[in-house]
Design brief:
This protein is mainly β. The protein is built from four helices and 17 strands. The strands form two sheets. A nine-stranded antiparallel β-sheet has the order 11-10-9-8-16-15-14-13-12. Strands 1, 2, 3, 4, 5, 6, 7 and 17 form an eight-stranded mixed β-sheet that branches. A hairpin with a 5-residue loop joins strand 5 and strand 6. The longest helix is centred in the N-terminal third of the chain and has 14 residues. The radius of gyration is 21 Å and the shape is elongated.
Length: about 270
């Protein structure tokens, strides 16, 4: 039975094709405080994409308006930057910038499509912003508090029951389940409807998820160490996820001992 479930779920994760996340409500939180500006991160904008790319929005608010580069007549008070981080290369790029005036009206925007990846400078503001991203779900330390079968089964497996009480650690480039370490992990966010999941044998009601869809993250272990080499995260609620592991969903709860409760707030050193 255990082997059958493992094979079945490996096929499901490999063959799943879900629609991309729908737009969610913005949720801003302070990430950086400078002498003449503050930077907030839009937690709800975090998206994990193919190619080890993480996309997230940062909002910079100035203490006083400044000119937009190459537009001396236009002054902005706030800008929102969509930044892509290359998780396996320690690099980043600015994907889009939108400028706003002091009333909140949009002035102009700039989009970058070129592969202009820059190295994260040690100790720089961008590295500090990236460090604030590393504390957000699904990253961090999680404790296994139980397990669930997607098909409603109740027979426990010894290989699964022994995982209860252990920890799962998810980092941007590595992941660990108990003692099994994946040295190179790739993430990809998707949204699946209940109908799509039902066709794959996953019943949301069996997982105690009351919704017409589920936000998921596909995990692919590219560095070895996991068998099977794929997993799936289902976002249940704040501080809780389900993780597909050897055919069973592990119930994960945020480990407050291993993960900071709040985003770190950095202050720029005065010269």
């Amino acid at each position: 039975m255990f082997l059958t479930r493992t094979i079945l779920w490996t096929v499901i994760v490999c063959s799943s094709c879900f629609c991309v996340h729908a737009q969610t409500k913005d949720k801003w939180q302070r990430a950086y405080t400078g002498d003449d500006s503050v930077i907030d991160i839009n937690i709800s904008s975090l998206t994990l994409e193919t190619g080890h790319v993480l996309s997230v929005d940062f909002r910079t608010t100035l203490s006083r308006p400044e000119n937009i580069a190459a537009q001396q007549s236009a002054k902005y008070k706030r800008r929102i930057e969509t930044i892509n981080f290359k998780l396996n290369q320690n690099r980043y790029r600015l994907a889009e910038i939108v400028w706003f005036d002091s009333t909140g009206a949009r002035l102009t925007s700039s989009t970058t499509t070129a592969e202009d990846w820059r190295v994260l400078k040690q100790g720089g503001v961008m590295e500090k912003l990236f460090n604030s991203v590393r504390t957000l779900p699904p990253f961090g330390s999680w404790k296994v508090v139980g397990y669930k079968y997607a098909d409603g089964s109740t027979n426990p497996e010894p290989e699964i029951t022994k995982l209860v009480g252990t920890r799962v650690r998810l980092q941007p480039d590595t992941a660990q389940v108990e003692a099994k370490v994946c040295s190179s992990i790739a993430y990809e966010d998707k949204r699946a409807s209940s109908e799509e999941l039902n066709r794959l044998g996953v019943k949301l009601e069996s997982l105690e998820i009351v919704s017409d869809y589920a936000d998921t993250t596909k995990l692919t272990c590219e560095g070895g160490g996991w068998t099977p080499g794929r997993s799936l995260l289902l976002k249940v609620k704040e501080g809780e996820m389900l993780m597909l592991w050897n055919g069973v969903f592990l119930v994960l709860k945020r480990d407050r001992e291993g993960t900071e409760n709040n985003l770190p707030t950095f202050k720029r050193a005065r010269g």
